[in-house]
Amino acid sequence: MVSSSHGAMDCLLGKLGDLLTDKYKLLKEAKREVRSLQSELGNMYAFLKDMSGTQNPNEQAKCWMNEVRELSYDIDDSVDEFMLRVEHQESSSSKPQEGFKGFIDRCLSLLTTIRARHQITKEFRGLKRLAEEVSERRKRYKVDDASSKQQHDDTTIDPRMLALYTETARLVGIEGPRDELIQLMMGKDDQLKVISIMGFGGLGKTTLANEIFRKLEGQYQCRSFVPVSQKPNKWKVLRKLLSQIGYAAPHNTNMEVWDVDELISTLHKFLTDKRYFIVIDDIWDAKPWDTIKPVSYTHLDATAWSIIRCALPQNKNGSRVIATTRIEAVATACCSNDYEYVYKMKALGTEDSRRLFLKRIFGSEDTCPSYLEEVSTAILKRCGGLPLAIITLSSHLATQPNKLNKEPWEHTLNSLGSSLELNPTLEGMRQILSLSYTNLPHCLKTCVLYLGMYPEDHIISKNDLIRQWVAEGFISKAPGQDPEDIAVGYFNEIVNRSIIQPAHTDSSNDILSCRVHDMMLDLIIHKCREENFVTASDDIQDISGMLNKVRRLSLHLNGVIDGKSLGTIQLSHVRALTRFGTSTYIPPLVEFKHLRVLNLEFSGGSPQRMAMDLTGMCSLFQLRYLKIVSSDKTELPSKISGLQQLQTLEIEAHKVQIPADVVHLRRLLHLIVNGGTSYPRGIDSLKSIRTLRFCQLRMSSTDTIIEIGALTNLRDLQLQFNHIRQSESGDEEARQSTAALRSSLEKLRDLRYLRIMHDGCLDELSSLSTTPFLLRRFVTSWGWHSRLPKWIGELHSLHHLELSVKEMLGDDIRILAQLPSLTSLSVKIQANPKESMVIRRTGFSVLKHFEIRCSRVSYLTFEEGAMPRLQMLEIYFNASGWDRHGAAPAGIEHLSGLKEISVRIGGRGAKESNRRDAQSELTNAVDLHPGCPTADIMCLDDMWTNFDDNVMEEVQEAVGVSP
User: Fold this and answer.
1) Residue ranges of the Disease resistance R13L4/SHOC-2-like LRR domain (predicted)?
2) What confidence tens digit (pLDDT) does each residue in 801-814 have?
3) Per residue in 862-872, is it b (16+ CB within 10 Å) or e — as a string?
4) pLDDT at position 796, please?
């Protein structure tokens, strides 16, 4: 495993162990050098792990740790080169020729091999010498002694405590959240109620909890506000609780010597008949209440929350507890998994941010000189609604003697782009933000620092992140577990800890992409610089003279770039390269000898559609991840079979031809091509592949479609077929292609996501002999089924379904209603309904999103209690013929959980009165809903739903056109 703290040391030691096996046929002397090197590095690694666990290592220790990390990367690169040489020798000698020529070749190979083995012995001797020199420096400068004397100052004031003493008059935007939480607390239930406030560091959780604490003063007999923090002193926390609630110890009693059990017992007994209100601030670890056992809590594994919780009696006096935390799992555990009592903090809006900022500086939210408007807006954008950042920066500006001058404002803005390195005033903000990072295990710290590869405000795909983490070797190996599944767990835990924020989710609340708050990104970039983990820049000149070796390079380039600008940087040590922006410049790829990740994203297109130069890509023998996003023409090298480590190949471009030898990449897991002009034959040889997404597949390529059936590890399959020609031969091609597709789908039992873009009848897929039981998403675009395929009713894991049918009858609705996991449903019905479509009160138990497109929504009825969890309803229909058979769906008011409704009325070919009446009736129907959902009802003149011939006759009749 590669990590930010330990470099490549962990995986390097594993590789050195592999070199000692018979596969590499090392000479005895070489093996002796490898064992010695392995032993030296093992000792260094053990000390490095101890050092990296230190909260604040001194500068001498930091210097040595950096040196060891860099050494591990360099040796790892050398070992990789040697292993590649061995693999090449094995592959070149795998087919020996016969006869005299074969004899000569074998003799020459033997001589070359002996010479190479002696050279390898020399190389390992040199690597061992490097390791010994680093180890000697550790002894010479007595790094061990210096680190053992490192003292931690416990007297530092926690900056979060300032929130407890903030004047109420200076708070902005807190009234709404405060009143909402007080209302939640003041329920009629007199049982003990625990409410969690959860959110990103610096959002104001402590401030909000303290404001509620003040507001409710006098309503409780006992009150206490106790900070816990990451490494709490449990005795101290309990004694503070006792002191604040008014407990007085008996005369001559020394509470300092009480153990945890005695403190808990005293607290519990004292509060049993009291109405109390307690705030437990900043909890980092918790277990659900029902898992806590009333045993001795002096054990080290007991969390601070579990100890405090056991001290709080569950009386019926209306007692309340508020817990604040950054971690979602902790928030739900404190509330005994009752999500109703978890309050998620939100960032301040633009107006509240501005009010708070100006009020702190000028004493009034309406006072700001016009010449400072632009720079103040830029500063607030960087703050991103984070109260901590706004208060810190505004307080800093307010104390400047020349605060009305523009210069200190611009200096503050520019300093924010340098990882908050402004002055000691901002150190408290960094400390608060750092808490979320320093509490992480090493594996998660590495994944968090990798976010520094992405520019500010970038929406980051979850799939991209986890595949890049795996490609870089950041994911720990576990027997029987897939690295990508482990990486998904890492991603979810980082979200859970509020370090990254979800940007897009699907109907099942699975996170598809995320973003990083600007302030957290600044902290990440600062940490990356400290550990030489990521080098990011939007100006190549800034990094051209760097002395350190660049390990990961992120370029954000716009405009014209000089191709020689990177000439002074050693690129051979770079393991990951990402570049973003409008510039077409790409550093010379042939120089990136040890590149694992290559991510090229070009925003905007060139009018000349310039082809990018990717010729050096074939020399990247370690490349595991390749993604290219461009609206210009993309030409891959004609042969890429040398990229034998490649796991992900993703291309999104104007036009791209995939090299035919892609089928020889045996380790390829994900092949995603959007804009492809050809489909490679022989795809069935990619036995490991899990994701196959390809556009523009020819209808006539039935042999290629059949090959897909051999890819039994496929989880994600998306195919887009070329448009069908409207002819008998075209219809026959379409039938053959869907028959071939059905044959392949029957063999793919591990499918989770299936999307078919096929302009024609899909009835061939309605009778699968084998059901893909693990399917979670099924989408058909353009094509249609005559009726709902019966096998869909067997998909108990299905949570997202989009399809088009000629007709939808009662049996079809009943099948869909019984799908236990279905959260999102989109149905397009082409023919006029033959019977009413009634959504019963039973079924659709977890559906959140329902979209329906049909000619006559008057046939749709929702019974009372139908779709109890539905939040979003979308309806599409035509207004044509509304005066004869039009009416709004019945029972919309029965959808109790409805929050949003969107209606799009096709006005093309409809009378003006029909369009007006349809919009009016739908508005009236929505107005009947007691929950007042948000409504967006529009009539679009140029839209109609794609109905069958019978419906089109009515449209043509309405506009006076003969069918």
Assistant:
1) 573-934
2) 999 999 999 899 99
3) beeebbeebbb
4) 95
Position 797, amino acid: S
Region 115-137: mean pLDDT is 77
Please state, as a whole number, how many other Cβ atoms lie within 10 Å of the Cβ of residue 645. 18
Q: How many Å apart are CA 464 and CA 477, to the nearest integer?
A: 19
* Distance (Å, whole) CA 381 – CA 761: 51
Which among 474, 573, 447 is positioned nearest to 76, based on CA atoms? 573
Per-residue DSSP letter, 347: P
Placement of tokens 């509020």 in the chain:
498
What CATH class does 440-533 carry?
mainly alpha
- Per residue in 811-865, pLDDT tens? 999 999 999 999 999 999 998 888 889 999 999 999 999 999 998 899 999 999 9
Cα torsion 457, 602, 418, 587 to 10°: value is: 160
Measured torsion, CA atoms of residues 471, 474, 480, 481, in degrees rounded to the nearest 10 = -90
Q: What residues are paired with 629 via a beta bridge? A: 601, 652
What letter represents residue 213's amino acid?
A: F
Domain 350-430 has CATH 2.40.10: no
Task: Look up the pTM and report it.
Answer: 0.80
Class of the domain covering 159-344: alpha beta
Q: Comparing C-alpha atoms, which of 393, 322, 390 is closest to residue 173? A: 390
Q: One-letter amino acid identity for 322?
A: I
HSE of 725, CA atoms in CB hemisphere, 13 A = 9
Note the pLDDT of residue 304: 79
pLDDT at residue 565 above 70?
A: no
* 111 vs 99: CA distance, rounded Å: 19
